[in-house]
Amino acid sequence: MPEPTIAQKAPVKVAVEAGKTYHWCACGKSQNQPMCDGSHRGTGFTPMAYTADVTGDKWFCACKHSGTKPLCDGTHKKL
Ligand code: FES
């Protein structure tokens, strides 16, 4: 598995809606962080689907190394 690109070493807050599905960028190359914009083509990565269980703010991983993808677990502090 190739290493993902670190888009930034801080999470991105997104206001999600319950029941709505989002496509998180796993490769780190999207220009629309933290979500996929199709830039993963040819990288070996594919986006990860995330369906919100509740409406509210969620912190999505942008370093792409979180152990709880697509959400931040603080791993960016160790990179
Ligand atoms: S642009 Fe990164 S997974 Fe699609």
TrEMBL record:
Matching InterPro entries: CISD (IPR052950), FeS-contain_CDGSH-typ (IPR018967), MitoNEET_CISD (IPR042216)
Limits of the Iron-binding zinc finger CDGSH type domain: 9-46, 47-78
GO cellular component: cytoplasm
Range of residues in the leader sequence: none
Keywords tagged on the record: 2Fe-2S, Iron, Iron-sulfur, Metal-binding
A Pfam family of this chain: zf-CDGSH
SMART domains attached to this UniProt entry: ZnF_CDGSH
Superkingdom of the organism of origin: Bacteria
Gene Ontology MF: a single term: 2 iron, 2 sulfur cluster binding
PANTHER family per record: CDGSH IRON SULFUR DOMAIN PROTEIN HOMOLOG (PTHR46491), CDGSH IRON-SULFUR DOMAIN-CONTAINING PROTEIN 3, MITOCHONDRIAL (PTHR46491:SF3)
Protein name per the record: Iron-binding zinc finger CDGSH type domain-containing protein
Organism: Mesoterricola silvestris
